[in-house]
Design goal:
The chain has about 300 residues and is an alpha/beta fold. It has two domains: about 140 residues, no CATH class; about 130 residues, no CATH class. About 25% of the residues lie in helices and about 25% in strands. It has seven helices and ten strands. Strands 1-8-9-10-7-6-2-3-4-5 form a ten-stranded mixed β-sheet, sandwiched between helices. β2 and β3 form a beta hairpin. The longest helix is centred in the middle third of the chain and has 31 residues. The chain is elongated.
Length: about 300
């Protein structure tokens, strides 16, 4: 794993007497138009699996470093993305950014800090506005790093598939050929409603079964329309309806592979008793990748988590 530069975070933190508070910075999602398909769901337990080259994911850790005059927050953030090869059981690619994020009014002060950390400046001047700008920067940077890792993986994958943790909404077609990439997106948050009868077709979905498929149109030129379905990874009879529930996405050009993709995701589900709060929706190789990426987060940020 490579980092652009060596940063002494301990020196940085000593220089500012940091707060390092867990100040949540989340992201939202936009509602999309949904097109139903005739492709019905069913059990995928016995279907053949797709060949997988690697799993790709990104992480972000953002902590409030300190408060400046007029309650202007200064943040310390680590953003990373990587790919893990399940056959070699090792991380094969990774990119990292470690930055101080602050208002332009604090730029000179931030650049004078010890430790040699990069500084990114946002335009806002006040608490809530700075939070919004930091949220946008972190989310955009993580997605950019994920896309860079994904692009490198696609150039090497040949006829194999790549599993991406999250939606494929930002995944573009091949710039030269215009082909849709062989990527499976696994979305663990299923709070958006895409089917009109979800209380019947999704809430009661049995383990190892998929819902009927639907299409999510591309938001921008160059991106892919996506075919999607829900997959129940574990039985939820005595659990909340979202227990064990993930949503699978593929470029619509690969619609015929949707059920095999779901079978592949089911086979890679994380097992019980691993100590992960998301174990019922998580992929075991994504979990291993996240652990490896978090191991490279500087200790002061990990200690605050």
């Amino acid at each position: 794993m490579n980092s652009d530069r060596c940063v002494d975070v301990q020196a940085l933190c000593r220089g500012v007497k940091p707060l390092l508070l867990d100040r949540s910075i989340g992201t939202g999602s936009a509602r999309l138009r949904v097109e139903p398909t005739a492709q019905s769901g069913g059990c995928v337990n016995e279907l053949p699996l797709l060949p997988i080259a690697c799993f790709v994911d990104g992480i972000q850790v953002v902590r409030l470093l300190t408060m400046r005059a007029d309650r202007r927050p200064v943040y310390l953030a680590t953003v990373a993305a990587g790919a893990i090869d399940p056959h070699a059981d090792r991380v094969v690619d990774a990119g990292f950014r470690l930055v101080v994020l602050c208002s332009h009014r604090d730029e000179v002060w931030a650049r004078s800090l010890p430790g040699g950390c990069d500084v990114e400046v946002v335009d806002a001047n006040h608490d809530a506005e700075i939070d919004l700008d930091v949220r946008a920067w972190v989310d955009r940077t993580r997605r950019d790093l994920e896309q860079q890792v994904l692009n490198r993986a696609l150039s090497l994958a040949k006829d194999q598939w790549i599993v991406l943790d999250g939606s494929l909404r930002d995944v573009a077609r091949d710039g030269a050929s215009g082909d849709a990439p062989q990527v499976i997106g696994v979305v663990k948050t299923c709070e958006e409603q895409y089917l009109t009868d979800e209380h019947l077709s999704v809430h009661t979905l049995a383990e190892a079964h998929t819902s009927r498929a639907f299409v999510l149109p591309a938001a921008r030129r160059g991106q892919c329309d996506r075919i999607s379905c829900y997959l129940r990874q574990y039985d939820a009879t005595h659990q909340p309806w979202t227990f064990g529930l993930v949503r699978i996405e593929l470029p619509v050009e690969h619609s015929e592979q949707l059920t095999r993709a779901a079978a592949t995701v089911l086979a890679g589900r994380q097992h019980r008793g691993v100590g992960d709060a998301r174990w019922d929706r998580q992929q075991q190789w994504i979990a291993r990748l996240e652990t490896a990426l978090h191991a490279h987060v500087p200790y002061p940020l990990r200690a605050a988590a």
